[in-house]
Amino acid sequence: MALLEIEDLHVCYGRVEVLHGISLQVDEGEIVTLLGANGAGKSTTLMSISRLVNAKSGTIRFDGKDLGKYQSHEVVGLGIAQSPEGRRVFGTMTVEENLRLGAFLVNNEAQKESTLRWIFELFPRLEERREQLAGTLSGGEQQMLAMGRALMAQPRLLLLDEPSLGLAPLLVKSIFQTIRRISENGVTVLLVEQNARAALKLANRGYVLEVGNVVMQDTAQALLANPSVREAYLGG
Amino acid sequence: MEFFVQQLLNGLAVGGIYALVALGYTMVYGVLKLINFAHGDLFAVGAYLGLTLLVSCHLAQMLPPFAAVLLVFVLVALMVALIGYLLERVAYRPLRSAGRLSAVVSALGASIFFENALMLIYGARVFVYPDFLRPDFTVTIMGFSIPGMRLLVIVVSIVLMVALQVFMLHTRVGAAIRAVAIDQGAARLMGINVNRIISLVFLIGPGLGGAAGILVGIYYGQIDFLMGWSYGLKAFTAAILGGIGNIPGAMVGGLLLGVVEAMASAYFAVAWKDAVAFFVLILILIVRPTGLLGERTADKL
Ligand SMILES: Nc1ncnc2c1ncn2[C@@H]1O[C@H](COP(=O)(O)OP(=O)(O)OP(=O)(O)O)[C@@H](O)[C@H]1O
Ligand SMILES: [Mg+2]
Question: Does the model's ipTM exceed the 0.90 cut?
Answer without folding.
Answer: yes
